[in-house]
Write the structure tokens for this entry.
Amino acid sequence: MSEHKQTYNLFTTITMIVGVVIGSGIYFKADDILTYTGGSLALGILILLIGSSCIVFGSISLSELALRQTSAGGVSGYYAEHIHPALAAAIGFFQAFIYLPAIIAIVSWVANIYTWMLIGKEASLEQQLFTTIAYTILLVMINIYTRNIGGHLQNLSSIIKLIPLLLVAVIGIFWTKDFPAIPPEVTVVPVHDVGWSWLSALVPLAFSYEGWVIVVNLAPEIKNPEKNLVRALILGPIIILLTYLLFFYGMNQILGPSFIMSTGDGAVQYAINMIFGEKIGKLLLVIVIISVLGVANGMFIAGIRMPQALASKKWIHSPKIAKLNPKYQLSTASAYSFLAAVIFWIGIHYLFTKYQVLANSDISEVPVVFNNLCLVILYVVVLKLYKKGEIKNVFTGFISPILAITATATLFIGSLLAAPVYVSIAMLCCLFFCYVGYYFYKKNNAHTTQVNS
């Protein structure tokens, strides 16, 4: 019998997906998408549709695996069940200590930037570092010691965060005024042709769609997971896609592509202030901060459980991490080890920013692409199950995985077009961390064999 208590209903599971994905990337990546497409609205919408294929068809494909397994571990659990435990340990280690922590580091840093914008003070990098770490510690404490509050915070932030997005989207559809003049202190970026390099827009867009897959880590804690997890993996991505399309179109209608590319990350604030004025703009900025923190919170809810899932399967040797605290229904050692990984990547991002190591990218983008490539193997597993007749539905078992693989391949090509040398080196680093997880698994197995003998 499972040690986990089934806590989350369908609504919470859907809001977990929506809450994790929507909230940060769409605010500070919209200008990057337009920059890579040269300001073309049509190409920007096409990029949104291609990018959404990874999450929409990927989630539908993985729902077939979710029907067949509800044990802890999520994606790494699927690897163990259908491929090999050693590879599962490798992927699990990468996700638990590289992929998710790097994303949370960037999302928390964005929340910190908007916080200082709200205060109206230009903060030093060191002040931003302190604020970011403070946010992550606060969220972990909430999700360890007040578990229900963490779930309620996720529901609340998932609903609230849609307000500015939908306001801009709806008003933008009916907007008839001329585009605003670009501020004189801002360098004007005109609409221009970019050739095939528009595919590189998939890289920043991938961040805006990322995080959806971690909800499968919560399968043992979802009420009636056989139905609710599958429904959530289908409904959640559809809600996200529609929201992004409407928001992106609305922003372009209000500000125009050149204004958005020229003002960069500040474009959203320009749009909000232009529509509602500075006072209401401040209130909506608070909502944006809650929205971004909701992303980090959703990722923490799943992430703090990942080391425990690895240890409980004996993929890493740590009885302390494997043990669930009966009072909090999770492993506090697992939560703190995950927090340490997040703080580590926050420090790396701080150093990269201070010394300008990455000009137009951040530490999370390559792990996001690498994680999507790891999912391709699971899509192939779904195809094999369909071929064997174990999956009867042609859409979920054949069409969806084919489309998900195609979209992921396009994402990978786009990342190489953006920065071939950096992406190649970073991919090798991700592979190295996977090897570390593989090594720990092999070492632990050898240790277990010696003890048993």
